[in-house]
Fold this protein.
Amino acid sequence: MTAAAEGSPPLRATRSRGGPLLQSEQAQGMALISPTFLYALVLLAVPILVVIAHSFWTQNYLTIDRTFTLENYRVTLTEPIYRDLLFRSLYISLVVSFVTVILAYPIAYFISFHGGSRKNLWLFLITIPFWTSYLLRVMSWKVILGYGGVLNSGLMGLGVIDEPSTAFLYNTTAVIITLTHAWAAFAILPIFVSLEKVDRTLLEAATDLGDGPIRRFLRITLPLSMPGVISALMIVMIPTVGDYVTPRLVGGKDGVMIANAIQAQFGKASNWPLGAALSVTTMVIVTAMAGITVFILRWAARRAR
Amino acid sequence: MIEIAGVTRSYGAFKALDDTSLSIREGEFFSLLGPSGCGKTTLLRMIAGFDTPTSGSIAIDGQPMDGIAANRRPTNMVFQSYAIFPHLNVAQNVAYGLKRLRLDAGEEKRRVEEALAQVSLSGLGSRGATELSGGQRQRVALARALVMRPKVLLLDEPLSALDKKLREQMQVELRRLQQAVGITFVLVTHDQYEALAMSDRIAVMFGGRIAQVAAPKEIYQRPVNRQVADFLGGMNFVKAEIVEESGASIIVETHGFGRVKTDKPQAFVRNGKAATLGIRPERLRVLWDDATSSHQVTGKVVDRHYFGEITHLIVEVPGLEKPLSVSETNNFGADDIPVGAAIRLAYDPDALVAMAD
């Protein structure tokens, strides 16, 4: 019980009527979160458990053999095709998340430090691309990067190239470009929030102690906005590993990622246990990669002092 | 040491600082005192280089400061919020400005330890910035500035966030520290007791202008006008008429106190025959029993306020338009004087000061 409850004896009489369960604040808190919690449990935890369970079973034509086996993991980790797809997915998500954060930081910095009274307008403008669906945004990159696309006709108009290039679309680079654009806002917002929290007097103090603008940025602003940078990296890195639509639409055969292979196992190949094993492996590796990235960045930030 | 010549700072039509000139001496503890919005912080920030004068110039140690950025000035500042870097520990905070000097590791460590010792924080170097109390944060901010060995240390309301007891203790310590290091200190404050207790000289500011620059005792006892007198503490104002003026002194005639000869104050502005006399409440003394004084007034107690060590008596004196406020220590029983009692008050004619209205 809390001090507040002890300090208000008149309430006690009415409270005891509610039964002992509702008296404790913990129980009240549990009651408050339980609808959402149950919802999350049913739609998040249960499917994950189902997937994990499947990964230890075997597909037997139309039925599933429920004897425990590690065969699916053996296939996942040894078949070159899955290993390559996994590495490519990790590589793409790593590149996308770092490029996105590097491009997002100056925008967030500008809004936070030079946005003045129009900060909200700038943030609003950043959300405009989200007014259309993700699918349409990916499709529009097809229009830009395609054989008869904006980029090719522009370069031809400038006389840089003589005939349309096929180098822009249906490869890893196209996937990286599209994903970087798609996730920009998700990186800008957390960085913006952490920059907003940087006390401006600290910057004056750094100046007072002899720092010019660049040293001041590296020694104060950047380390203090690191939490925002790390969350931006995670927000972009984790979902992009498993992105399905973008590689499917602009990736071609060189841009296929692990999610496309997982979809194939659950779909056409109809091998749910292998698809499940691929999913679980991807999850574990993404978690490890995210953890390692956070650890390295923290360590680097400590070293920089 | 610091020469401020005709400095004005305007924000549109509003003048935060209006044609201010001031000379601060080397090794002096100088205070800028005034109510909020009087321009004292603006002036301090212009000395530090965080703000630029609209017109006029500032020179430090003979060097004109025009166009010299804050990070290249021989000044360091203790901020009101202390601005301790939250991601660094105490020693790293103090060493922050030294990094640029590229001292060797031993020398840097020695200077950090010396600065921490000066503010009595020895041994707390590895403490995290977020694990400090308000008083400790203030000391870190002080050490971080002092370690740079600036020519001028600027303090922006450094004690305002501390509780009363700690504030009084820090006043004594700041004064002692300033005398030990011999650096010129410029303090901004709105607390008159703080300014009086610590400063060698005080500039009292109102509405973007300096009203008076003088030593604490002079400014308290001989304020140039009613505004300054009022800001520095309680003051009884008495209307007076100038009857004779000769050189440095004037003779005025009042209803309650009769004819008084007093020094003509600095920057005294004559306004016809009218003048104001002021006397501090503690310069009026209750006369007990049949004690007499060659200078005394008689009145009736109309109100009484008890403050522990002192009592404020409000005394109505025939001929005065406002009752006198008297501050009397309680060791003779001033707290027992009943409301309505007739009492006599003694005063020293030197305590009566003439001032501009």
Observations:
- Residues 1-16 of chain A have pLDDT under 50 and may be disordered.
